[in-house]
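G., the chain you wanted modeled:
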Amino acid sequence: MPQLITMVMHECKRREKYVDYLRKIDQQLCHHGSQMDSTLNLFNRLLELLATSVANFTVKHFLLEQEVAIKQFNAQIKQNDLMADDKCALVHKCLHLLQQKLLKRSSWGTSLTEDCDDHMISEACQFLQHVFYSNIYRNVFYPNGVSDHSRDRIYQQHLSQLSATWDLKQISKVYHATSPWTSAQQHLKIMRCYMTPRGKLLCILRCCITINHLLRCCHGGNPPGADAVFPVLLYILIKANPISLLSTVQFVETFQLDRLEGETAYWWSQFTSAVQYTKTLSADNST
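Predicted structure as tokens:
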């Protein structure tokens, strides 16, 4: 028996170099595999950037051809006698026609792969929507002109007065650790940089999701209920005091409301409820 153990130990020692060699080969294979994955991800990202560049370039040339038609359309919706629903229908119809014309262009046949082509078309439609709304923005965001500006200014002053006295008393102390939720406030403050209803809606959605995640961190990973989220959302709305908030709500409801569903519809409902609730508050009873 001792002789057998000695033979086994001797054999193991003799194979140590080979085992080390196999271990090094395995490490090298893992390293090369990781490098190949990184290279593949980089290549796919370059394809996406290429598709985005081609799409944007194509849309810019397409819009130059449609410049006169867009100007005529802008003049049409500038008319004050048009109702909000009529303007919404005209905008959606015009945008749909532009997208159909764009997709019929022969230049789409130059895409590298089928997947890249789908991505390119998606990027082109989003870019077209962005440029289209940029051209008609003032007429659809402030459909009533001076009265809309005045309404937004009065509401912003109202939120400023509330902000001076509004504190964390209405919010459970469990959630105070992550206050004042600056990252969520920033999403509301940058809404004015977006000129499409979808862009503004995404800012609101990101704000609400950020709140939900931050409150979950304070609650042991458990999702907070609506009773916990609403006071925090109210606090963030008052403190962020985004510019032209009432016009933003009107803009999204006019051009995007019929496309809301699921989680997006839920958070939009929470947000608009907070906006309506602030209208009932005054600086005297805010504490």
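The two ends are 87 Å apart (CA to CA).

Shout if anything looks off.
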